[in-house]
Amino acid sequence: MPQYMMRRILAISFAFFFAVGSLTSAAQAPVPANAPYKDVKLPVDKRVADLRGRMTLEEKASLVGGYGWMETAPIERLGIPSIKMADGPLGVRSWMGSSAITNASGSKLKIESTSFPSGIAMASTWNPELVEREGEAIGQEVKALGRDMILGPTVNINRQPLWGRNFEGYGEDPYLSSRMGVAYVRGVQRQGVIPSVKHFAANNEEFERRRIDEQIDQRTLHEIYLPAFKAAVQQGGAWAVMSAYNKVNGENASQNAPLLQDILRKEFGFKGFVLSDWLSTYSTAAPINAGLDLEMPGGPRALDAIKRPGAEGSGVSGLWLTTQNVLAEIKAGHISQATLDTNVSHLLRVIFVSGLFDHPQEKLAGLDTPAQKAAALEGATQGIVLLKNAGLLLPLDPAKIRSIAVIGPNAAIARTGGGGSSLVAPKYAIAPLDGIRTRAGNDIKVTYALGVGMEGEDPAQDTPEARANLLKEAKEAAAHADVAIVVVGRSSKIEGEGHDLTTMDLPAGQDELIAAVEAANPHTVVVLNTGNPVTMSSWLEQTPALVDMWYGGQEGGHALASILFGDANPSGKLPASFPKKLQDSPAYANYPGENLKVNFAEGIYVGYRYYDTKNIEPQFPFGFGLSYTTFKLSGLSITPAKVSGQQPVQVSLKVTNTGKRAGAEVVQLYIHDGHSKIDRPTHELKGFTRVELAPGQSKLVYFSLDRAALSYWSPEMMDWTADPGTFEIQVGSSSRDIALRAPLVLAK
Ligand code: BGC
């Protein structure tokens, strides 16, 4: 270990173990019982100013560095509570250690809470109201567990199909991600719980995630990677934002003044606090001066983590904002007291507005309540996407089917989520096989075969003989059943935080398993249980039915069964395009970068913006998903059809359920700008609504568009602008299934 590191660590140890204790014992002016900051009726700014004015410099400094792994420092003298955090975002995870430790069976550190579907599954519902309910449920559980803050939502954009954390976020489109992120924030905050919108900004690969320097032009940042953060701040009123691990344009996100000051504070008007992602700070004065309000984590565990061999080389760094370090930098004139006051004010403001100061111990609803479980089940169900249903194999008809063979490495194990800090330990989790068995009841025989071991899970299943046997069993099971259901996908080890996927292909042996089962039984349903697209070219043509259940949380198996048997009608739509092959994806040539630099050279052409503009046919397009019924869109009307200035436009149309089952359609509105001064994607999503319809029923749906919906970010003006001319309003059921089009004129 380098000498300077050693010195710093000693200083840190000293600071942590001795300094914090001595702070609180320093002589302070007594605090009157009726001090203004204690008055709930006073405006929050007045309370903040009063409280801040009573704090010593040491106390202020102690607030900006983490106190423990998941806590801020309490200041008892003034009644300032510690902010107690938990991961996030797909439920509440134990704050006492990594998932690997706390989720292990028998672990004393385990915390059981509702495991919600992955973000990508929730995005597939296109149902912000449901995401808001999920946020509310998570907020309740946070409180019930005695915590105050949930480290989510993740709103990073799915730039390319290998990012290990794509499952956490809401897909490839900034508008969809914005709506979902806002809904999550609103739900959480309604419970008085602090969310943390993460990771700001452009955390889009796990490869060298703490050291990679992303070169992103301003237009791309503004149009693709920032809108979900902006919406969370401006529409959701988010109380906290977490900086990313990566660098953006040469500077670490935790000390990136253009991001934290110019964009987040000045452009977006953010009033909450910014915390660092865990162990991603690199100095003391720079992050504070750049607008970071809180370094996380602090304490002995943080010290252990930065001392671990190899930590420094991989960019693990922290404990820079300890009380002593901050005081030293103030003394040296590198941080002004006014700057520290600003940071402290951001934190205090949230402690007041969230209610944490006034009722810190309040515990609301419990854990795993019926409403929480219902939100998890509804999310899992509405998030399932029916990708193919040739010959109408689905829904399964229990009156005609006598036997089902359930096969595959993801059939009997409930793989509820991807790996890493978001992986929740639920009280129970329903595997696909459990869900199917329960639904099938006694009249349908359900058999099970593993088919192939999950890559990397059990070496005994990985020998040529073991593989041959497993495959043989699977073929036999399939051949003897009326229907075969093959559940394939990834594990939380393969797909998760800390590393990217190495391939878009399914793990070893799974393509072969699908082909073998399909050869044995023509009535085969393939179910995907992953958070990212997979390559399907070797089997898709022969596959009669394909369902994507993503990682569906604890209720995934029930949700899947209800879709397979038609108790629920699939209504999920892809929030990310599925390319035919990895090489087709927009960032293919610019990932993972070289010499710790990655150029986002594809610019704004991410996802369907790329596939649809460059005419590259995806396997399944953005917004796509089938139903057991059919829908018709008609009667598109734009009022007025010519606008100027900030005048809003009303778009309306009729949606009709033309089939025989109740179902829900997600009507998507895209704008096409063929006349702008600079290149724009062939179309961009600007509205959507999920409509539930009984058979034969029609409903009118409305959208309101404003000038912002027509605008692009102009590098020349460094601002959003819309060029007068004729736009096309497109309405459809996916980015490649546009049913109706109508012109809209923006006058000069
Ligand atoms: C992750 C964050 C997470 C934090 C705390 C980091 O490694 O990137 O998303 O909230 O750890 O567990």
Any low-confidence stretches, pLDDT <50, length ≥5?
13-26
In which order are the strands of the major sheet placed? 9-14-13-12-10-11
Using the alpha-carbon principal axes, give the shape.
globular
User: Strand portion, in percent?
Assistant: 15-25%
* Helical percentage: 25-40%
The mean pLDDT is 95
What small molecules are bound in this structure? beta-D-glucopyranose
Q: Could you say which structural class the secondary elements and strand pairing correspond to?
A: alpha/beta
Q: How far apart lie the N and C ends? A: 64 Å
Specify the biggest β-sheet. 6 strands, mixed
Using the CA coordinates, give the radius of gyration. 26 Å
Number of strands: 25
Helix count equals 21
Describe the structure.
- With 748 residues, the protein is of the alpha/beta class.
- The protein has 21 helices and 25 strands.
- The strands form seven sheets. The chain has a six-stranded mixed β-sheet with strand order 9-14-13-12-10-11, sandwiched between helices.
- Helix 1 runs antiparallel to helix 12 and helix 3 (57-63) crosses helix 14.
- The protein is globular.
- The termini are far apart.
- 56% of the residues are buried.
- Mean pLDDT is 95; it is low at 13-26.
- Beta-D-glucopyranose binds next to loops.
- Beta-D-glucopyranose binds at residues 87-88, 151, 198, 277-278, 421.
